[in-house]
Amino acid sequence: MDIAPYALQLFSGLSRAMVLFLLSAGLSLIFGVMNILNFAHATLWLLSGYVTFSIFTFLSQQFGVSPWLLLPAIAGAVALMSLFGFALERLLIRHTYERELPEQLLLTFALVLILGDVIKLIWGLENRRINLGVRPIEMLDTLVNPYQFVIIGTGFAVAVGLWLFLQRTRFGKIVRAAVYSRSMVSALGIRIPMIYASVFALGVGLAALAGGVFLPLLPMALGVDLDIIVQCFAVVVIGGFGSMLGTFVASIIVGIVYSFSILFWPDGALAMIFLIVIAVLIVRPWGLFGTELRS
Amino acid sequence: MPMPCLELANIHTYYGTSHILFDVSLEINEGESVCLLGRNGAGKTTTLKTIMGLAKGKGGAIRFNGASLLGREPYEIAQLGVGFVPDERLIFPDLTVRENLEIAVKKGRGAAAPWTVERVYELFPVIEPLDRRLGGYLSGGEQQMLTIGRTLMGNPSLLLLDEPVEGVAPVVVQELTRQIKNLKGMGLTILFAEQNMHFAADVSDRAYVIEKGRIRFQGSMQELAANEEVKSKYLMI
Fold first, then answer.
1. Which ipTM value was assigned to this complex?
2. How many domains in chain B?
3. Scanning A36, A177, A282, B15, which has the fewest C-beta atoms within 10 Å of its C-beta?
């Protein structure tokens, strides 16, 4: 049996899984704490990709082309986008907490359109990608882009870091408490508006990281955000809202199922993911790792 | 004449379109312990939540040590020194007992002896051995002690206690009663929401009786004990 195509799909599935995880983790945290579905989450990811691209291009002009410039470019984009996320929550998102779900979706969907147009205005219609000039390596009888391992490694490292952050730090503990009861956290004298803005900034920061890390592998293009956000919703439903472990496992499931479906039934890749979503909703509506009851 | 520490004047509270509190007025002096008695659904919890900013009060005024509370967020009200102990307890289930306490710590507002985890354990020795247990795995009595302890960590000067002995085993009720009297002895001002007349008589100086969102009676515990009409009409005793 020729295992080469399977190995290729496994690696690309895992790297897709890591991007899905970075995005879904933020989405799930934001939903867990503020109870708002941020439809624009993947659009912020897309915007971050373009921002990373511009910083990378600028740095390349200043210091000459080097793949290592991607690191400061990503760091800069994460910082800028986190600040942008903080401001976005303070200026717009916070007004929707007391509102009905359709109104929240209207606002965040409007952001999808507005940010999409901002991208068009600044970067035009062309796709953007960064070519790091990394040569493929031979593995398992096939050629693999070694950069995929960077993505997979980053995903695992962030998962562990995020878990430690939520478990060990005071901020992380407040976030976990707020997922259970925001009003009780506020009644204990904790400045909850600051927690909301910081969680939103953290979520956007994670999305920005995903956007930057993804750039050398696939081009950023208008419309990709909508494909990705739909898959992120699938991830959080399968994993269970509010569970980081669930988000991680579900990202791997969705990433791998998607990339193997492409091998056997290219048109049905998304359908496969939604079959899993439906199965989970029937058997465990609160997700594989979610908690059954929320107060 | 002591200054009123907490004052509600003609407060109305709504949940959506339903009108819950009607023209509620009450006063608590510093160091006093007052109970708000009433049946289920009379408006006791809503009154406490309105003071805490968790339910939005309208109309008159709510003043705490001279500061207006109406329209403020719960965290601001907590920072002014009001502590709320909800009857649902709302212990954070995936934080340990110690983390539940630590999360609520605030620098004492000039409090002589600010609350620490160790002081809470001194007051409630039962929960000390549970230090590293997750909040989701506690008995009713343990949860109640932890909830009170968690609120104390913010060094409140006014404590709003919503039915603290409800759903707690009878042996634990005695212990809790003693500990709450301890708190009163430390000079804390306390407002109870209570249905349990025995417990209320044991821990409070004065009573308000609330029914269908209106205050129907106010007076000392002795006056209430002697008033058969109020007791049978509003409290079913």
1. 0.93
2. 1
3. A282
